[in-house]
Amino acid sequence: MPAKNEETAENAAADGGGTPSSKSEQTRALILETAMRLFQERGYDKTTMRAIAKEAGVSVGNAYYYFEGKEHLIQGFYDRIAAEHQVAVREVLARETDLEARLAGVLRAWLDIATPYHEFAVQFFKNAADPDSPLSPFSEESEHARVEAVSVHRQVLAGTRTKVPEELRDVLPELMWLAQMGLVLYWIFDRTPGRERSYRLAERGARLTARGVALARFRVLRPLVREVHELFTDFLPGMTKMLPAPGRNP
User: Fold this and answer.
1) 11 pLDDT band (50/70/90 cuts)?
2) If DSSP codes are grouped into helix, strand and coil, which group holds residue 89?
3) Are 52 and 68 in contact (CB under 8 A)?
4) What's the Cα-to-Cα distance from 235 to each of 35, 52, 221, 230, 232, rounded to whole Å?
5) Which of 74, 172, 216, 238 fits a 20 to 30 Å CA distance from 9?
6) pTM given for the model
7) Among 4-18, 48-62, 170-184, which stretch is predicted with the lowest mean pLDDT?
8) Closest CA to 43 of 67, 70, 61
9) Residues 6 or more apart in contact with residue 218 via CB below 8 angstroms
10) Tell me, what's the pLDDT at 236?
């Protein structure tokens, strides 16, 4: 891999000096788009950084300037999906106050955005499913995209007319994101036309989640919600630790 100073000089030359940030973003986007296309056509394991650079019309050094390796390209993909999802949910979150409608809209928006990448997801699953891989959605490298995804569910709860207990406001969004990860897993294996069953699962899952959140207002059920959250945070890598429970040492 080229030395960093060589990469920087090469990148500056490629950007042409005029509006570096804009051209730099365009070049980065081109490399990412090319990589995603080749991953779908050839598979992740068989696609090299050299092939991506050649197809994108940039040098290998310039490709490495933007992405240190294939894993970083996938992180770029995760970040882009998360950013697109943030934008896509604005309308439904601005319009709806009913929790079920808000959550169903958020889940449908994710499925819409992910549609072009279904075949790639099928090929890529074995890499992302490896708990030791930086490509796992639970990995340290995926933290930024994961935090962005959880923040969408914080917005879902923040704007609903359903009363959410204060002590569960940091717990429920993460549990809702985990439920979304279950939907993603189902979607990967869904072979129905237009992933119709995945959309149905999103609707029914939103209904069930909304009922669960509504029930969480009852004080007697709150310890159970926190215990479920603790179970996931203790055993799933990458999940943030829950706030210390009363009487529990931090």
Assistant:
1) very low
2) coil
3) no
4) 33, 36, 22, 8, 5
5) 74
6) 0.79
7) 4-18
8) 70
9) none
10) 67
